[in-house]
Amino acid sequence: MSGLLGGARNAVNPLRQLTIDQLRQRTSLKWREYPDDVLPLWVAEMDVPLAEPVARAITDAVARGDTGYTAGTAYPQALAEFARRRWGWDGLAVERTALVPDVMHGVIEALRVVTEPGDAVVVNCPVYPPFYEFVAHAGRRIVEAPLGEDLRIDLGALEDAFRQARAGGRPAAYLLCNPHNPTGVLHTADELAAVASLAERHGVRVVADEIHAPVVVGGGRFVPYLSVPGAENGLSLMSASKGWNLAGLRGALLIAGPAAAGDLARVPVDVSVSTSHLGVIAHTAAFRDGGEWLDALLTGLDDNRRLLAALLAEHLPAIRYRPGQATYLAWLDCRALGLGDDPATVFLDRGQVALNSGLAFGTGGGGHVRLNLATAPELITEAVRRMATAVA
Ligand SMILES: Cc1ncc(COP(=O)(O)O)c(C=O)c1O
């Protein structure tokens, strides 16, 4: 590592590096779904250049022609060390991990080993829309446990959902989103321990999607689900995809608690083999060497969160925004604007700004939009200006 030089370069806010003209040259979903007069602040991609250690690892691999099948344990080792450094958690055992092609395919494989077709999967709505689609595709049923008014897990609603899911003694799973997308809520150790104890009492298996774990700001601390008491038979999915914008370089890890090692062994071997070697190289480099870059990103995201809150207070005070401590997503309650169930359509049609419609996030999503904060402050300012124009 180039010592001081590297440090100085990495301290630069990655969210301020690219111009809109450069971003419009991108060919990925965020910048290609809508015409050029639309400002896209929707899908969870970040408007950042690739972190230098990741770019170097990939280009070195390409230069070597190192594009075969993936091998070894460098990825889980790098994540285990990251977990120790960042979260003070030393419970990630490399031998209880499996490579999976990406987080959602890992979620599905985990659900397949702990439930049977037709069984229920509990989710805390509103939640990341593919939870609904992937679970249905795997032939499982969704049971919703709505978040509370405070956007936190409502243990009473969760218990009701667990009872419903386990009716007739069938196996059931709980797909926990930790931290939560779209609200950005960071679950506390106490909340997660309560979840584990409830799951244990009702015989529900917990699968935790922890893809947003590295993206925590405002003095918050991510608590891995598997680190809380009672979570020994849990399964977790982690990846560098969100923290370092690696959706195009896919690769994730399925991690088993000590009492779930047997479940991990039942994941078909072809699942791990389907993982991209270049993806694994990228994710490994991110967790191993991408800490400084991540810190610079998190500082920029924290600024953006405050900027959005200030802009909304000034230009759209009817929108309710409760900044969470995690993810780069802002969940905006637009119901007081009187735009109906789908304000995203109004902001798109009248303001040329693309946000995610809350409707796709399940019960409780109506009247809400999700805004992606992982962009330049100027674009957030422009987005709010457009949103205000749309409702003027
Ligand atoms: C909660 C959550 N899980 C999974 C994913 C997708 O992960 P992957 O592309 O690795 O399947 C996302 C992407 O935004 C997400 O927010």
CA(first)-CA(last) distance: 52 Å
Task: Report the C-alpha radius of gyration, rounded.
Answer: 21 Å
Question: Which small-molecule ligands are present, each listed once?
Answer: pyridoxal-5'-phosphate
Q: Low-confidence parts lasting 5 or more residues at pLDDT below 50?
A: 1-10
How much helicity do the residues have? Answer: 40-55%
Q: Count up the domains.
A: 2
- Shape descriptor reads globular
Question: Which strand order spans the largest sheet, edge to edge or round the barrel?
Answer: 2-8-7-6-5-3-4
Question: What's the total number of strands?
Answer: 13
Q: Provide the structure class.
A: alpha/beta
State the CATH class of the largest domain.
Alpha Beta
Residue-averaged pLDDT? 96
CATH topology group of the largest domain: Aspartate Aminotransferase, domain 2
Give the name of the CATH superfamily of the largest domain.
Type I PLP-dependent aspartate aminotransferase-like (Major domain)
Give the topology string: H per helix, E per strand.
HHHEHHEHEHEHEHEEHEHHHHEEHEEEH
Characterize the main sheet.
Answer: 7 strands, mixed
- In terms of DSSP E residues, the strand content is 5-15%
- Helix count equals 16
CATH architecture of the largest domain: 3-Layer(aba) Sandwich
Keywords: Lyase, Pyridoxal phosphate
GO molecular function: cysteine-S-conjugate beta-lyase activity; pyridoxal phosphate binding
Domain Aminotransferase class I/classII large: 52-386
Cofactor: pyridoxal 5'-phosphate
Q: Could you characterize what this model shows?
A:
Pfam families: Aminotran_1_2 (PF00155). Residues 52-386 form the Aminotransferase class I/classII large domain. This is cysteine-S-conjugate beta-lyase. GO terms for molecular function: cysteine-S-conjugate beta-lyase activity; pyridoxal phosphate binding. Its cofactor is pyridoxal 5'-phosphate. With 392 residues, the chain is α/β, with parallel strands linked by helices. The protein folds into two domains: 14-50 and 291-390, Aspartate Aminotransferase, domain 1 (Alpha-Beta Complex), CATH 3.90.1150.10; 54-289, Aspartate Aminotransferase, domain 2. It is built from 16 helices and 13 strands. The strands form three sheets. Strands 2-8-7-6-5-3-4 form a seven-stranded mixed sheet, with helices on both faces. It has a four-stranded antiparallel sheet with strand order 9-10-13-12, with helices on one face. Helix 7 links the parallel strand 3 and strand 4 (141-144). The longest helix is centred in the C-terminal third of the chain and has 25 residues, at 291-315. The radius of gyration is 21 Å and the shape is globular. Residues 1-10 have low confidence and may be disordered. Residues 44, 102-104, 128, 177, 181, 209, 211, 239, 241, 247, 252 line the site of pyridoxal-5'-phosphate.
